[in-house]
Design a protein that fits this description.
The complex is a heterohexamer, with 3 copies of chain A (about 450 residues) and 3 copies of chain B (about 110 residues). By secondary structure, chain A is mainly alpha-helical. Chain A has 15 helices and 2 strands. Classes of the chains: A mainly alpha (about 450), B alpha+beta (about 110). At the D-F interface, α10 and α11 of D face β3 and β4 of F. The complex binds adenosine-5'-diphosphate (3 copies).
């Protein structure tokens, strides 16, 4: 989607930055670029891999044995539901042309991929490939939120939440920022819209904020905080974390939509941020608690990746290092703060890691895009300061919208089907009660 | 005969096994248990949150011995598994009315 | 292999459809297409990943703890054996030029890749890449059959079965349909041969039917059905299923042998079918048994993927949806029917899921290839009706051949080395008795 | 890096071999090749996947439950540390231009990727992509060494060892062989330098030899050999092994730095060697111990892959088969020999598998590069004999250097922070004592 | 002294632990077991096939108590673990001849 | 009443269960244990190295029975679990003073 945004940007005269960013657009119009297509096909597989099984295992290892299957089930069912809805109308809302209402949403012209032939192109790759690549983002975002209410949510509520949240939060926000809507170039925030390369706002801020609200509405797990049991399998968690790291190459470097230096630099800064944040978290944990844990270092990794996501296509290696330091450091302190100071049982720390990380990275993007700091430069007319305000505006709008809509959705679901399982079921565990299975019979 | 039930530190199992073998006791049964006593469980910290673990992993061993051997067995289990630190564990002695070796049908002391 | 088939098809005048399907062939002859090569190299890795560890974990989680290693061992050893045999002569049988006997098999000219230099091309990709990509299909197909006789088969029997089955079932059938043999364009079924994009017949029907026969010949597990224990680790099974889904992108979209819209659309319909089938299975299970299980939803996923496999390069999004609905629904009812009505212990439901799914999809291909239904169109002269007959013919031939040869092979093995372990060994478990290891010492 | 080496080679007149090997260089200079870029981006993800989680799981499954997390932690922390250091100065040492000292090391000009813009090219791919691809090699190599001292090493010692070893062993040796240094064409060994396609010496010999030395310095685990417990989870080990196999496609075929027949043939011989070595190990185990184990067959796989690594871009299918036979066979006998005859507790057999395999393959490269044996040919002026000497020279230099430097590093660490945990901690396990976590709470 | 062996519902462990603690009983050992009684196992359905699970997961706790405490301990375990539904479990009381605290060598009641 | 503790081969659990049920004993508790006796553990070989496994996986079953049933129960466990090979296991008989069914509070024999 950057390509279109950038096309607009060119029209808006931001040529300098743009050209360096995507040589692709230099090609003669309408020609398929097989190399870019190959990389985005690959990236699509990588990002799906992030959710199935990556995120599912990462989350599954953090809960009690008696709930591990329910977490895997949530992620899996969400992936399926999101995929079908993406075809039915979500893609159209996010990336269609909403005509008069385009600032707000993309309309329904592309529902069921209407009019998208096998040869249709998006920029210089097949639109089907772009459709699939974007779908994988729509899959992982609601799955991230699951971390807020594991071990007590009703399965049916998860499905309803997924469907409504994608429709009223994810798809619109994606349209605003990536689909030519209100927050992109020439929108409410002026000629230079929000710069969110791979989803710092679209994915992490929306998921993080919604998770926080959901945790508050649904309430704490029984025995929180004192009697909660430790992660039942750090092994599973590390496995999932590693898959998230690998898949994130597709997430960020794939977001270049090209197979070139832009993708290469995005992959580089992404990786550097992940590594730096991991070491940062490890060091802080060591200093503060006297030992470095596996669960800790991989949490730092996720924080670093979430933080660099919006910046990945705009900054250089230095930006990657700083995103890692900031993301790892800030999230390290945010996590216990939310759980203990605020007493909110955002069970797997979705807001503290993804929300906080995504916001941090979105702001850092404005700073480290500066060539002086090794960045790829701002759009013409934009400065660090001006862009900072735009980024801030984007965060606020997305956060407020996510919070409000999530609140409404959950209230509706509470009435319609109920949010929580009974206390007995919660103690007995969701696996056997809701899904009729046990995680392990060794 | 007596049935000795001892709850010990997992890392002590091998030493206890050797101690009993040297006494000529040639059989035992071990299983993984969790427990607490003076040693009141502990706290683990994940992502800055404290998790209370009430039960500490231990190994429970069950050894059936003849009356004569009982006392020395208790003693050697104690010697082998003691570290002097809290959590060392406990030994319980129960009366054992009968023992049968399934393979041969032998019963009583010679079944041990 | 589609490229060659399509080349033939062009000759046969089906230009319209063909060109839309593979712009690649438009290129000047003999030129290497680096982009297509990159995607097929990637697809090869993805399809290998499906078996190792994907399928192995999927199957391993479904059996008893005491047999988990034996299942992993079967999949791993089969992968190694199939690879070496593929080089030695299987590739030649499947994709060589059999001269006079070409309708039946491809001869031995390409044994040991004789005459295939580093620069040799297949279509516009290196033949070595095509060789590797196809090898991964020859790896997974016999591994699928393992599901029919887990927990009681002799390891040596597995190895013999793999070697003989690949030689007399897989390689010939692949040749008939993909290698220019009897079932392809201009063969026994007329100008328009079977349309099997990625292996609905070549992989799933052959494996499914052979599995059914194998289950009958080898017999039920002790205690079947009443005393069989539940899957020992739905966690492993979900992990493997997720890897299968991701890898299937290479399986189906890679079968385009191009990095373009054809691959993009194939990936799209594949994904849609997987998601739809998963939800279908979940819904049916919920309605019928009052709860949706993780093992259930991932089984639906496999059914949807097997069903869309033959169709993936010929149908549009609508076709993907219908393949998912049909595959998920039909396999859901077929599974208990085979096990209980027929009392056949096809232990991991290979026939009910892959066989039934593959047949369903092969037939649906003829229908949803119709442009009116969003398909990419039939070859010139072909209609839904005519193609349906051709597809049916292909299924029947492949099914009958697979059944007969499998029967013969197993009878031979029974005599030569024996099929089953002793009842004691079966109760004690294959891991410790056959492989001298235990799955877990936690 | 082969591209540059080959450029030199061309200058040296070895055109024949070179051109066949990399059509890429035929392109007009300075042009980005998107297809090659796509494949190397993918390969980078594949090779990272080898370490995270591949190698971590492979190793983790082989140790005692009470140490599984420590092994995952070692691999993860090493990956992070190596990544940051690679950016800071390691890449520059390995692939920079050291000017006068270039025979020895590449200097610091490229520290922090100084002067490497988003558009900078290495050959015909972005230098950032080359940087990332090479980084993944620098990640896995020290992680391999972990196998030598698991279950008793101090975590802090692991971190120090990783940093120092990469600086003084890995980066320099990589420079000598791949960076235009002393062991490459025109260096100390004459016009034709060492041929190490993907790291037989740079990765496997350095890691293997250093592991052996480390095992001797750090000493045996308590109770070695009699009282060591069996692998706690062959399931994890198989999972990791399978990921290693898949990732190795990126490791070897990616080392072509092109998306063409060279990559295709490299992938082919790599796969064939892995499969052959697995079957070889399985057969030998069966003959010698009466049963074939899962841990055994996957160990054979790793041996085959390590062996073919240096040869992968130079030999044909026959070479792949022989590498598999030799690697599987020799390592099978080397493993118990080191542990029992020599009584060295190289706990996870790093030297016996990687060191021995890497050496074997490095020598076989000289032989099977011969066109008569299906190879791609030697450089002009080189013969099997002459190349054998060169390869041997490379092995000796790398081995001696690795051994000496590793010894010094470990002695320093022993003094500075200590190498081993206390006997009590060793018995209690590293997970709970060092990292405060347990692997499983089922 | 008595050794109480109780087989309870896994979800009741915490309540039982608290009940005993409030009685001043400061140690216990727990382990995962499977069993059946009136509650005859159950069926699980996978892919439309029924799987019989004869044994239901339970937690077994072992508590050594002085004779005086025995009765009240039994009572409070019962109160804490009862749901009134089938499968609540059983409590068994065995004679305990001796108990030793490994760390100190104390024996008898004071070892508990 | 008696508490029977039997350590048997894992593969024999089902047969023992059926044998006891046919005796009208309608409850039991089973758990996974490891042990050794005459059967002295074994060696496993990985990558050519021998690993000594001192403890062999077994299943421990606990059955509380009335005095009358005790003997026949021991006998049928023995018959059901015997293979005649080393490692068949052991049966121990302990006195059981009291049994309580948590759900109903019934005690004594009728609680079984
Ligand atoms: N009263 C008891 N009944 C049953 N088991 C007990 C009892 N007291 C202690 N244990 C077991 O003994 C283990 C060690 O006991 P603990 O009191 O921590 O040792 P110590 O008192 O010697 O420090 C506990 O984890 C528990 O499993
Ligand atoms: N006779 C017995 N011997 C040993 N354990 C028993 C016996 N009867 C029941 N149990 C244990 O108690 C648990 C609960 O018994 P159950 O009969 O289901 O409870 P209730 O009879 O109160 O419904 C069983 O799972 C089993 O572990
Ligand atoms: N003295 C004993 N105390 C406790 N358990 C024992 C004893 N002897 C044997 N066992 C248990 O019985 C199991 C089988 O014993 P074993 O001696 O191998 O059988 P057999 O003597 O009939 O061959 C052992 O694995 C162990 O768990």
């Amino acid at each position: 989607m950057r390509t279109t945004r950038l096309a607009t940007a060119i029209a808006a005269g931001a040529a300098a930055f743009v050209l360096s960013a995507t040589p692709a657009v230099a090609q003669e119009a309408g020609a398929l670029n097989g190399a870019n297509t190959a990389w985005i096909l690959t990236s699509t597989a990588l990002v799906l891999f992030m959710t199935l099984p990556g995120l599912a295992l990462f989350y599954g290892g953090l809960v009690h044995t008696r709930n591990v299957l329910s977490v895997l089930m949530h992620c899996f069912a969400i992936a399926c539901l999101a995929s079908v809805l993406w075809l039915v109308f979500l893609y159209s809302i996010a990336f269609g042309d909403g005509g008069g209402a385009n600032a707000l949403f993309g309309g329904f012209d592309k529902a069921f991929l209407a009019g998208v032939s096998v040869d249709a192109l998006w920029g210089d790759i097949p639109e089907t490939v772009f459709f699939m690549f974007q779908m994988t983002f729509a899959i992982i975002t609601p799955a991230l939120i699951v971390g807020a209410f594991v071990e007590r949510i009703r399965f049916l509520a998860v499905l309803w939440f997924c469907a409504l949240w994608l429709t009223f939060v994810y798809a619109p926000v994606a349209h605003w920022i990536w689909g030519g809507g209100a927050l992109s170039d020439g929108g409410w925030l002026g000629g230079n819209g929000v710069r969110d390369f791979a989803g710092g706002i679209v994915v992490h801020v929306t998921a993080g904020v919604s998770a926080l609200v959901a945790a508050m509405v649904i309430g704490q797990r029984q025995g929180f905080p004192g009697e909660i049991t430790p992660p039942h399998s750090p092994v599973l968690t590390m496995m999932g974390a590693a898959m998230l790291w690998v898949g994130w190459f597709g997430f960020n470097a794939g977001s270049a939509l090209t197979s070139d230096g832009n993708a290469g630099m995005a992959m580089t800064v992404t990786h550097i941020s992940a590594a730096t944040a991991s070491l940062t978290w490890m060091a802080l944990e060591w200093l503060r608690y006297g030992r470095a844990s596996l669960v800790g270092i991989v949490t730092g990794m996720v924080a670093g990746l979430a933080t660099v996501t919006p910046a990945s296509g705009f900054v250089g290696p230095l930006g990657g290092l700083v995103c890692g330091l900031a993301g790892g450091g800030i999230c390290f302190f945010a996590t216990p703060w939310i759980k203990h100071r605020l007493g909110i049982d955002d069970s797997l720390d979705v807001f503290a890691v993804h929300g906080v990380g995504g916001m941090t990275g979105t702001l850092l993007t404005a700073v480290f895009a500066a060539p002086a700091l090794g960045g790829l430069g701002h759009a013409a007319g934009a400065t660090v300061g001006s862009q900072l305000l735009v980024q801030l505006g984007g965060i606020v709008v997305a956060a407020v919208w996510s919070a409000l809509v999530t609140l409404v959705i959950l209230k509706l679901i509470a009435v319609a089907v109920g949010l929580r399982v009974s206390p007995e079921v919660e103690i007995e565990g969701l696996d056997i009660t809701t899904h009729g299975e046990r995680g392990y019979s060794l | 005969m007596k049935l000795l039930i001892a709850v010990i530190k997992p890392s002590k199992l091998d030493e206890v096994r050797e101690a009993l073998t040297s006494l000529g006791i040639e059989g035992m049964t071990a299983s993984e248990v969790k427990g607490y006593g003076r040693q009141k469980g502990h706290k683990e910290i994940y992502r800055g949150s404290e998790y209370t673990v009430h039960f500490v992993p231990k190994i429970k061993i069950e050894v059936a011995v003849s009356d004569e051997l009982a006392e020395r067995a208790v003693q050697s289990i104690q010697d082998a598994s003691r570290t002097g630190q809290i959590g060392d564990g406990k030994i319980f002695v129960l009366p054992l009315e009968e023992a049968v070796r399934i393979r041969t049908g032998e019963s009583g002391a010679e079944a041990l």
